[in-house]
Amino acid sequence: MKLAFSTLGVPGLPISDVVRLAATHGYHGVELRTHPEEPVHTGLDLTARAEVAAEFKTASVEILGLAGYARVAAPGDDEPVLAEIRDLLVLARDVGAPFIRVFPGGDSGPTTPGQDPGQSAEEADATAARRLGTAAEYAADLGVRILLETHDSHRTGADAIRVLGPVGHRQAGALWDVMHTWLGGEQPSASFAALSPFLGYVQVKDIASADDTTPLALGAGVLPLTECVDVLSREGWDGWLCWEYEKRWYESAAPLEGLLSAGHNYLSQLLNEAA
User: Fold this and answer.
1) Measuring CA to CA, how many Å separate 86 from each of 17, 82, 137, 146, 253?
2) Where are the alpha helices (DSSP H) in the chain?
3) Looking at the predicted structure, is the pLDDT value of residue 198 above 50?
4) pTM value > 0.70
5) What pLDDT was estimated at residue 115?
6) Per-residue confidence band for 142, with pLDDT thresholds at 50, 70 and 90
7) Hey, which residues does 33 pair with through a beta bridge?
């Protein structure tokens, strides 16, 4: 397995510094948070996109994926969501990223009096599957794969396959965020069994508890990282492990830069022990 980290852990850091961190600390790749407040976003012109690709290529560091924020199960018209995905796909092609990340974002929770009813789970599933099926055709033309993250309304592997199964397209896959499947009460073996036919890569992280999701150094919290790596290794999966350290959302968290070497060593140790 190859190791990467997400720029969610180094908010706003220039690409040259991101590449330097990856190369210095032994990471094979980087997942780029793709948002207007970051150096890489869909508003970049072709020259800037080429410069991003060149910086990574020169350092022999891969761009694993673009972490976008399209919500495929969200209520509303399809076209704004599809347009957002298309823009991400084109950017991914231009910078050389094989994957883009999308969220479910379904609205199936309880409503309060006076509000419009939320979607049912079945409606959210159908909406997400319809949009992913359409977007997957465009993704195929660009050579990029769309990954639905286990998150929010669809946080477990069992939730995600209710969408991905009906889509049935190679360019629509899954991104396994191990925190969300754990929060959803799903064991790593069950998550992998559900997601393995669709799995693009795996996001690892660590937290203190279900009630305190402030990011911690890998191995310092409660998430079942050993079990996850054991399952992946036992099943012969050889994709990417990407450390998503959510510094952007938790200003009090320790800086990621000082944790990268220890995180790399921890994941390497888990991989060696699992082998």
Assistant:
1) 28, 6, 11, 10, 34
2) 15-25, 46-58, 78-95, 121-142, 157-167, 178-183, 188-195, 225-234, 260-274
3) yes
4) yes
5) 40
6) very high
7) 67
